[in-house]
Amino acid sequence: MSNNPLDDDPFATDDEQSTADDTAAVDADGGTEAVAESNTNDGGTALSEQRVPSSATDLGPREVGHVLASETIHVSRSEYTVNAYIATERREQVRVGDYVAVSYPASDDRLFAAVDGLRYEPYTDLDDRSDVHNRINRGSALDESEYVLVAELEPITILSVEGDGGEDPAEALSRGIVNKVPKPNTEVERVEDEPTLREGLNIPHSGIFCGYLSVGGDAMEVGGEPFPYYLSNPGISPAGEVESGEPAVFRHALVAGSTGKGKTHFAKNLLRQFMGEKRYPIENHSTGDLERSRLNTVVFDPENEYWQMREDGEIPSEDRRRLEHAGVEVGGVDSLEVFVPDVANTTPPSTGESRSFSIPFSLVRSRPELLMPYDPTPVTRGALEGCLSSYFDQEDARPTYEEFIHYLDRNSHEDSVLRARHEIADGTWSAVMRRVKEDVFTDVFDGGGDGGTGANPLDDISGELFREGQVTVIPTGHLRGGKEELTVLSMLSYVIENKISDHAVDAHIKDTPMLVSIDEAHNYLSGADTLRGRYIIRRAREAAKQGRKDKLGLLMITQNPEDIDDEVLKQTNTNVFLGLRDEVVERVPSVPSEFKRDIPKFGKGQAVVKAPDVEAVEVVGLPFCVTKHS
């Protein structure tokens, strides 16, 4: 019986019949195939190709193919073209995002690269644009032997061997620029060892656990264990020594992700790693002595979720042992305290054991912008600031918002000393009184209490709120609109100003290393069009620039990173992008360009991390929370 599928086809042309005859001549038992292809259109010389089936190849255990010699191999300062042939039996093992290495002859150097793209190319000039092709192949399995799989490589660095590395093999490797072209036909090997991955990507060997290095949402494994990704980013002291501690915390971080992508889950696991016994060097502002103190972590909690971090999460026992062995912090935080803002006409949330505190009106003395959630005219602003200055200059008891209003009422007549001193006309006075008499001010300042100062004013209990080694959770889910904005911005301004100022500061804040975590950060750190908003942004920019010096770190958690002030984002060194909408990705300049198409398709817990001096990589977070997360 004929093996030619066209023998019984009356529509087969002479050329199709000839090609089919050649194909049918292939050795049916899987031996070496010799396929002759005739070109009858231009009368050229017939081409022949020798194919070697997978059974005849001899690949190393990690080898996936070789550098293509039939295509241009190009390395320059601006761009690279390096392609690799993927062996037939390794095609299912190679994905976009995998890491590979190519050795240089007569050298221990290796090119470290990522698989940036994959494409199929035909061995021959196949023509499948015909009904005949469809009839022949209908119901048949794809014959992959007719195609070549080509991997497009993105060179990252050249790794060189220096010494034996001692106890750490990674220390024997050093990174260099890509300034040598790989040789044609050189073997391409998958990278599966920790030293090469760490040095190739410049991932720190230790630090803050941020998840597992992954490809396509699947954690990469080395020796059967997932490969941990750490944040570090050490700085250099004026004396030229590497700083101790965990400087990455003071260079700020962003965790961004749409609803349902695991943003809070990821942020909790990341935050938990900063809550340990590590001590950070900080200069005492009074004596100038260098002290070492534990981190105080302040968490603004708009959804009343982070207070749960005082309790253990549901962690499988085997995973707990593995994480603890790797130095990952797991379990509830014993030192976590909840402080609930005391705001009138609200119902405090259920957060277990907690204490209340109030926002004192005295904060407005040096921050009059807190009373200006609008854009006043220069005349109105000057009049209001003059009224505040005159009120605070009185030798009265602790100032309160209610007493300030009484003070204005007593001076409302046109010939009052206050109005005469500041030359406030009737129209301006009316504007000031209209702006300053707001229910939100009455409810927030001093706990809204009948002329009193409110229980536990912020500045009175700052030593308890910002205690060294403590996690301070401030739930704001019971607040809405202007009440929440005024409460959070008042606290942020108090913390930031006492951190970055050098005169008349709160020592509990100034002399304590601090991490301030702000969920829904876009609500407070956006490019505002109000005087109060611009004031907060200005201070946040200063805090971001001086964070390393003053030991103040910002962790911003948001689903709208494009709304956060650009200058603050520019000072944010670590960026974690979980799944985000296409339009958001396009508007955030810090999203690595090579991942822009992937991020909108990410599953829950899948993220891209871009840290300073480290290649942007994909990571996947833990499938469970290391603390309680309901």
Written description of the protein model:
It is a single chain. Helices cover 24% and strands 23% of the residues. Helix 6 packs across helix 9 and helix 12 (481-500) runs parallel beside helix 14. The protein is α+β, with helices and mostly antiparallel strands and 630 residues long. It contains 16 helices and 27 strands. The N and C termini lie far apart (69 Å). The longest helix has 20 residues, at 481-500. The strands form five sheets. Strands 11, 12, 15, 16, 19, 20, 21, 22, 23, 24, 25, 26 and 27 form a 13-stranded mixed beta sheet that branches.
SSE blueprint:
Elements: H1 14-24, E1 33-37, E2 47-51, E3 63-67, E4 74-75, E5 80-86, E6 99-103, E7 110-122, H2 131-137, E8 147-161, E9 173-176, E10 187-190, H3 194-201, E11 208-215, E12 218-219, E13 221-222, E14 225-226, E15 228-231, E16 253-256, H4 263-272, E17 279-283, E18 290-294, E19 296-301, H5 317-325, E20 336-341, E21 355-357, H6 378-392, H7 401-410, H8 417-422, H9 426-436, H10 439-444, H11 462-465, E22 471-475, H12 481-500, H13 507-510, E23 514-519, H14 531-550, E24 552-558, H15 566-570, E25 574-577, H16 582-587, E26 606-610, E27 617-620
Parallel strand pairs: 16-24, 16-25, 19-22, 19-23, 20-21, 20-22, 23-24
Antiparallel strand pairs: 1-2, 3-5, 3-10, 4-5, 5-8, 6-7, 6-10, 7-8, 8-9, 11-12, 11-15, 11-27, 13-14, 17-18, 25-26, 26-27
Helix pairs in contact: 6-9, 12-14
